[in-house]
Amino acid sequence: MDHIYLDHAATTPMDTQVVEAMNPIMTNIFGNPSSVHSFGRKARQYLDDARRTMAGSIHANEKDIVFTSGGTEADNLAMIGTALANQDKGNHIITTVQEHHAALNTAEYLEQQEFDVTYLPVDEQGRINIEDLTASLRDDTILVSIMYVNNETGVIQPIEAIGDILKDHQAYFHTDAVQAFGLLDIDVQQSGIDLLTVSSHKINGPKGIGFLYVAGGTKIEALQFGGEQERKRRPGTENIAAAVGFKKAVELTVENKAEKRQVYASYKDRFLNRLRENGIKYEVNGTPDHTIPAIVNLSFPGTNVESLLTNFDLSGISASSGSACTAGSVEPSHVLSAMYGGNSDRTTNSIRFSFGSFNTEENVIEAADRVAAIVKRLAN
């Protein structure tokens, strides 16, 4: 039995070209990029090249890219660092109820530090109401943090509209773009984004590295203490090999972005069509009009998440009930609870399928057939 991976939103396999790019760095480039001698300068060259690639991918200045250990650290640095640095302007923060836990738990921490946090609701389509944001803005609002694409549903938020609202306000605009990067065209300047989070392992790069874009002039405090790396915003010796692998992954992503959108959209269509051909009743969670093609979240009436995932795994199908950070949890999805209410069956009978480089048209169809057989067996 072939195993079929439909959980690319959780993590992706490293591209072989990424591995090939990293191997000589791990073997030959061991200098500290902060050292002034030739070994350090050589390492610094690779790091600077990677930083330029990251910046170019979002139309940013290379000086505004801060390498981190991944998306979670970048979210923490963006939210806590900005909040602490701007307390003289106010203590009000706006986010949403459907953020990734890297941002949601950070917001809850900031509440414990006596910051006032407003959590915007989302509608049944999974999107915020722009009027809610406008009504929530105050003179003392210092940060608005709203994710670009939801990791469970793939729903895209109205990022440019948010940026337009905030362009004449003191509040900084942070967005977690971990699921958006590599599929959507991102221009931080055009969209009015001040802080943006990206993670390498979501785009077939190495784990343990990401970046935070911090627009020039943004006041932000470091959360760690040590050296003066990353322009004093994130101390610690940089991971050169991972940065080079990340760079290669970004280059491949930028080069193939349009093609991937088209391929993943075809996978989603074929997957859903095959389920219908098998007589499976399902509901798509989130608006299809504002969703990335790589993610589809389906509610299967009369089933429950635990039984579905267990049986999927036994049949060689890897999927998820939502964020990988809460995999194995029996708690209802906070994202779907925000969309449909905590008592909705959708919060406990929905599965996220996410497409990527491990998929082909053939194994997507095969996966749909296996999923259909299991749902038929388990549905009440």
UniProtKB/TrEMBL annotation:
Catalytic EC class: transferase
GO molecular function: cysteine desulfurase activity; iron-sulfur cluster binding; metal ion binding
Residue span(s) of domain Aminotransferase class V: 4-364
Cofactor: pyridoxal 5'-phosphate
Catalytic activity: (sulfur carrier)-H + L-cysteine = (sulfur carrier)-SH + L-alanine
PROSITE patterns per the UniProt record, alphabetical: AA_TRANSFER_CLASS_5
EC code: 2.8.1.7
UniProt xrefs under SUPFAM superfamilies: PLP-dependent transferases
Similarity remark: Belongs to the class-V pyridoxal-phosphate-dependent aminotransferase family. NifS/IscS subfamily.
Protein's name according to its UniProt entry: cysteine desulfurase
